[in-house]
User: What shape does this take?
Amino acid sequence: MSQVDTLIHARWLIPVEPDNTVLEHHALAIEDGRIVDILPSDEASAKYSAHTEKRLDSHALIPGLVNAHTHASMSLMRGMSDDLPLMEWLQDHIWPAEAKWVSPEFVHDGTEMAIAEMLKSGTTCFHEMYFFPDTVARVASQSGMRACVGIIVIDFPTAWASDIDEYFRKGIVVHDQFRNNSLISTSFAPHAPYTVSDEPLSRIATYAEELDIPIHIHVHEIEDEVTRAVAETGKRPLQRLQELGLVSPRLIAVHMTQLVDEEIEMMAESGGHVVHCPQSNLKLASGFSPVAKLMQAGVNVALGTDGAASNNDLDMFAEMQTAALLAKAVAGDATALPAAQALRMATLNGARALGLEQEIGSLEVGKAADITAVDLGQLSTQPVYHPISQLVYAAGREQVSDVWVAGRHLLKQGQLTSLDEASIITRASSWREKMSDFD
Amino acid sequence: MSQVDTLIHARWLIPVEPDNTVLEHHALAIEDGRIVDILPSDEASAKYSAHTEKRLDSHALIPGLVNAHTHASMSLMRGMSDDLPLMEWLQDHIWPAEAKWVSPEFVHDGTEMAIAEMLKSGTTCFHEMYFFPDTVARVASQSGMRACVGIIVIDFPTAWASDIDEYFRKGIVVHDQFRNNSLISTSFAPHAPYTVSDEPLSRIATYAEELDIPIHIHVHEIEDEVTRAVAETGKRPLQRLQELGLVSPRLIAVHMTQLVDEEIEMMAESGGHVVHCPQSNLKLASGFSPVAKLMQAGVNVALGTDGAASNNDLDMFAEMQTAALLAKAVAGDATALPAAQALRMATLNGARALGLEQEIGSLEVGKAADITAVDLGQLSTQPVYHPISQLVYAAGREQVSDVWVAGRHLLKQGQLTSLDEASIITRASSWREKMSDFD
Assistant: This one.
């Protein structure tokens, strides 16, 4: 008998790679935070002696979900100002609130709340864009959560930095500080083409190459963004990004609801990635991203919730379902984006976008043990004809029972092990009291 | 002190009528299954002595949700055949499975499962269209659930009836049998314009008038339905229904994704109702219903999940959220269908469509005590700036803690009191085993 740290037996194991595969009555062995074996349960019991052994008789094990675009601490603004158009929402509500309230304490409390919500709903890695990335990285690392933290760059001064040089200086310190932390990676996060000018964008193209990290940016979120850019510069934003050297396999272009066929081709040829945020796009009436077309063209499309101020949750199960449903309606084809593809978007495609596909995104021997267990034995997913269908079209976040990140058991039968949920809720409530007076 | 059966104190009470109103720290008194008072909590404690008193300190009380279109027992086919277009899905999968399996036992077990799922997710009344409506009515009544049961009529023979006359004969027996049951009402449920010919449709127009009940029919679900009808009859289906006398305040037209402006006007003038089923429409790529336009024109729009075979759940919280998000994207206006309107669609508008607006759909003195309690104290709806926003955009079905139908406490801290959940799951599983062999 070989000794391993953890052996998890599950009714179904859905590795994502190979695609559309469901293993029944299999077990997964973890040693030093990595998956060291996947094999039939009975063989596993004969082969391994485990420090911890867990049997999940009505559950599916899937790779931990990868939320490829969010603004974690905006959770503190969840529902603060709904039912408004993007620009009014940003300019009259979100930005003034941020100018007044965003601080290391705000980001600390908001990020803890977001991580708690993400873990409870099966997400094990998030791709962040917000101020005080140093705090985000610290909170994620302390919670045992995996994160790719965006080094925010924006033309105007904020509580985090007063000018472009300071954004770069402080951001690169964050990168260097966490470069040996196995849970934390970084990306450059220029906010959007309309808020970052050419010079810093060019610098980002160069620095991203030198530091070997991705570039995380909102692109073509709404029609108005594109038409204004054309009026002011004669160019569509994506073309401008290309001319500045940003359209490459490093590019993680978020939203992309406004795309002509040539741009889809350009993305496919460049090897750049798209993050689809369907619920945010619907809520802000931003437009419909042509997801089926992008995928057909060979573009890697990942999935993100966006911030909880425009979603209004960080629930990747809801996001998978919305993505799968909406893609069919937009393509006018009920066979578009089938369940297995939606699950892949929410896992391996996210890992690829972040450059982490060797490490996470599928349940494979050698990868980190980032794992989510979903109880399909509950009424709402009964009966189970096809587990992947049930995961995408019927399962809810509340069916997530257990979550491991790098082998660490961060959610145990619905209970967080590294975060204090009651304290998080209390602090969220105090922020609301302060911010309501303002709003 | 007056004596009442039940007194429920809640952090928030959202009556739906008056519109967009949130009462804080209020209580609701129930006597003989009806709401007899709504008043501030402290006054309630001084005024009433209650047999049962409940304090819900982090909850919102809302009217029980009304699912205005479903096929309850299709829950047993949840996820059986996904990712297919409507006609292939119906003709090659659903209809053959139904031909082989649908029976009183199937409908009994499927309806129990559906009612269990609906109660657990806050729905207190459903509008049904399926075979064996006698069984549906009996199961609903036994479970304490409110239902409007469709008297199915369809041109082809099924296990329930062999010809049109038998559909009518057996259906009217169901109507008469349950006419004095306060939980059960009936509607005529001709399946769709393309499956029911002129003669039975005309008869339905007459009989519905005589029995004073609504007409429940799928209309303009997909483009192909309309273009085929035009090719075959020279008329769009809605026009044919109008000529046959079905477009009236009795009409409950389900789906309605294909509508020209004149049809929206016709619906508004007629006083007919629309049931929007956004998740089913997306999943089957049926098209986008112009919900904001319909409501602007003054049409009463209710909300339905459709059957769990095309959704794949009976979760009205998810449906409200999808309706609110999708309407904005379809209208190209982020202010379309705000949260309070979505909640109204899922409650009072459904009651109006079913002709039950004097009885249910809002928390008002004199109405039946059909009530849902939602715990907003959970992480996923924190912090609470605006309770209605949290209910529509962030709350999940799992936050429903308690449900009353006609004053009877059918869900008690998440536990069903009138149905045996374990037995329902076991039976669903046996149906899957039988039906998988077939599929």
Remarks:
- The first helix of chain A runs from residue 41 to 47.
- Chain A touches chain B through 70 residues (CB under 8 Å).
